[in-house]
Every structure is written in C-alpha cells, then in structure tokens.
Amino acid sequence: MRAAEKRLELLLDAAADLPAQVVGDSTRLRQVLSTINLLSTG
Question: CA-to-CA distance for 37 and 31, rounded, in angstroms?
C-alpha cells in the first residue's frame, strides 16, 4: 500500500536559516527513508 493510500504525509521541521536548496546524496536519503519504512512496519 502506498503512502497516499494510507493518507500519510512527510513533514519536515527545518531551521529558518536553512538554504532553500541543499546538496545531498540520493542513495543515503533512500536508505534513511527505507529504514523509516522498516521501523514503521515492524
């Protein structure tokens, strides 16, 4: 079941001085999101 079907949303509480764009590692982001998914289904 996809997140939208579960009516889930992802919220981010970022500092006001955080730049509008940041450079990141897409592989690491995918790992973090996968870990969150595993924790929420476990």
Answer: 10
pLDDT tens for the 42 residues of the chain, in order:
677 788 888 788 888 998 888 788 889 988 988 998 888 776
Could you give the C-alpha distances from 41 to 8, 15, 36, 37, in angstroms and in order? 13, 29, 9, 6
pTM above 0.85, yes or no: no
Tokens read off for 26? 């897409």
What are the Cα distances from residue 8, in Å, to 17, 22, 28?
27, 24, 22
Between CA 6 and CA 4 the distance in angstroms is 5
Question: Which tokens is 36 given?
Answer: 């969150």
